[in-house]
UniProtKB/TrEMBL annotation:
Broad EC category: transferase
Major localization listed first in the record, in broad terms: cytoplasm
GO CC terms: cytoplasm
UniProt keyword annotation of Repeat present: no
Gene: coaA
Name of the protein: Pantothenate kinase
Presence of keyword Kinase: yes
Metabolic or biological pathway, per its Swiss-Prot or TrEMBL entry: Cofactor biosynthesis; coenzyme A biosynthesis; CoA from (R)-pantothenate: step 1/5
Gene Ontology annotations of biological process type: coenzyme A biosynthetic process
Residue ranges constituting the Phosphoribulokinase/uridine kinase domain according to the UniProt record: 102-246
Lineage of producing organism: Bacteria, Bacillati, Actinomycetota, Actinomycetes, Kitasatosporales
GO molecular function: ATP binding; pantothenate kinase activity
Annotated family: Belongs to the prokaryotic pantothenate kinase family.
Length: 329
């Protein structure tokens, strides 16, 4: 006689761990994973790399970014191993040489993603296996101001439609394909526009880091309804820098104040006009910009891509990473 299957108490269902594609780690758990990876940066170098208003110090580099550089080094090595296996399978018909390992870094305005990208570039270039690490921001692929004005998109600057997404995807695709030399436009935060007749040249890096608001956006369907290849499809690893919206807003306003006292003072600065009014008037502009542009873009476009990242860095109110979520394989 077959014994009946015992029923599972309803309370047991309530306590069952929720299925998730990520491994969640606390800061101490993550920090322990760096093992004996040496710290190759000095306090002075970290000071130069961090963005205005960011508080990254040597402890943050040691606890968060050293383990990440070790993980990425392992990923690069594993990718090389897979390439070798593929070459063995293809034989003489399709043997391929190494192509750049591409990393995407995404997150809101003022969350600190640019500092993360610069730190990763500095740390990864110290590993002997991949000394050539290039960093490209998607700002260079924003449509020129004149074109944004013609299309009525100046108030949507930073939204996906304000970029030349086809040119950006083609740029990364060409690098991933192993082209000897690929160029990108250059953006100036001083003039708030693309710099005419200036190009960034990338020549076969070991690793390419692509940093920007919308780098994890899925591809839009073509006019024929077919799915296209998107920028994120070329990434071997991706990082999303996360924080509470209210904390990001506070950081944004704090950064604006500091920029008003520094970069905005430059006579060539697009934002110099905000140094000619009272601080409160200038901050009213910053609050309006956050409320009407940056926050809607974060909520509608940037934050929904968080679940596409390989690794999510979750910052606390003090700008320090508190928890991390690493996608399972």
């Amino acid at each position: 006689m077959i014994s009946p299957v015992p029923s599972i108490p309803r309370s047991a269902h309530r306590h069952r761990p929720e299925a998730t594609p990520y491994v969640d780690l606390t800061r101490p758990e993550w920090s322990a994973l760096r093992e004996k990876t040496p710290l190759p940066l000095t306090a002075e170098e970290v000071e130069k790399l961090r963005g205005l208003g960011d508080v990254i110090d040597l402890d943050e580099v040691r606890d968060i970014y050293l383990p990440l550089s070790r993980l990425l080094n392992l990923y690069v090595g594993a990718t090389d191993g897979l390439r070798g296996a593929l070459n063995t399978f293809l034989g003489a018909r399709g043997s391929q040489s190494g192509t750049p390992f591409v990393i995407g870094v995404a997150g809101s305005v003022a969350v600190g993603k640019s500092t993360v990208a610069r730190l990763l570039q500095a740390l990864l270039s110290r590993w002997p296996e991949h000394p050539r690490v290039e960093l490209v921001t998607t700002d260079g692929f924003l449509l020129p101001t004149r074109e944004l004005e013609q299309r009525g998109l100046m108030s949507r600057k930073g939204f996906p439609e304000s970029y030349d997404r086809r040119a950006l995807t083609r740029f990364v695709a060409d690098i991933k394909a192993g082209k000897a030399e690929v160029t990108a436009p250059v953006y100036s935060h001083l003039i708030y526009d693309i710099v005419p007749d200036q190009k960034l040249v990338v020549r076969r890096p070991d690793i390419l880091i692509v940093e920007g608001l919308n780098v994890l956006q899925p591809a839009l369907p073509g006019k024929d309804g077919r799915t296209r290849v998107g920028l994120a499809d070329y990434f071997d690893f991706s990082v999303y820098v996360d924080a509470r919206t209210e904390d990001i807003e506070r950081w944004y306003l704090s950064r604006f104040r500091k920029l008003r006292d520094t970069a905005f003072q430059n006579p060539s600065s697009y934002f110099r006009k905000y140094t000619q009014v009272s601080e409160e008037e200038a901050l009213d502009y910053a609050r309006t910009t956050w409320r009407t542009i940056n926050k809607p873009n974060l909520v509608e476009n940037v934050a929904p891509t968080r679940g596409r990242a390989t690794l999510v860095l979750r910052k606390g109110p003090d700008h320090k990473v508190q928890r991390l979520s690493l996608r399972k394989l």
